[in-house]
Amino acid sequence: MTTTSAPSTSTDRYREARDLLLSLHGQPERARAEFRYPDVGETFNWAVDWFDAIARGNDRPALTIVEEDLSDTTLSYDEVATRSDQVAAFLADQGVSRGDSVIVMLGNQVELWDTMLGVMKLGAVVMPTTTAVGPADLRDRIERGQATAVVANPADTPKFEEVPGDYVRLSVGEADGWTDLRAAYQTSVPPAEHPGTGADDRLLLYFTSGTTSRPKLVEHTQVSYPVGHLSTM
Questions:
Q1: Residue 130 above 50 pLDDT?
Q2: Which string of DSSP letters, residue by residue, matches 29-87?
Q3: Which residue, 26, 85, 94, 230, has most beta carbons within 10 Å?
Q4: pTM for the whole thing?
C-alpha cells in the first residue's frame, strides 16, 4: 500500500530551514552548500504561522524584562501569544487594519513585544521608533510612512502636540486625549486569525539613523525580515 504524507506547511518549511542551520553550526562550508531559503508559500504571516504555532500551550519563558531596580517580569510563550491577541483585537477596534502603518514608540517593556506581534497579526505594518526622536522627526515619519496610528508611553505623548494628523493615538497608561492601550488586557478574545498576508506584503518600515543625510526608509516584507534573518545564522 502506498501512503502519502500531508504537504508541509509554511511553519514546517521555516522550521526545517532553521533546524538545518542549527545542525550545521561550526560547519560554514556545508551550510553554504546545503542551505536554501524556505518557500513559505503564497500566504505567510510570521506572527501567526510561526510564533503562534510554537507558542500556544507553551509554558516555557519567552520574555524577561529586568528593570533598573533589578525587579523583573517573565512571560511564557503562551502568555505572550494571548496578550498579543488582545492587543491585535484592541487595535482593530480602534480602526487599525491590514496594510496600515503603526508607529511603535516604546522602550524595552512588555508592551513593546505585545504591540509588535499584535500589529503583525492584523497584517498591519510596524514602524519601530526610538523614544529619543522629537516632533520634527515624528512629522517626517508619519508623513513618509503614512502612519495611521501611534503607540507611545504617556511621557512621550506631548511630542505629538506639534505633530498634526488624523491618526489613532494610543498610550500605555493614561494621557490626555489618548486611548489607554492597557484596556486591551481586560478583554477576552479568541486566537487571532490569519490576516491572509502574502509573502511579499509589507511587514516593517524602518528609518535609518540618518548619520550623513536625511533618514532613509527601509521596507521589509513578511518574508524578507523574519526569513531573511536566517542569513545571520
A1: yes
A2: HHHHHH-------SB--IIIIIIIHHHTT--SEEEEEE-TTS-EEEEEHHHHHHHHHHH
A3: 85
A4: 0.90
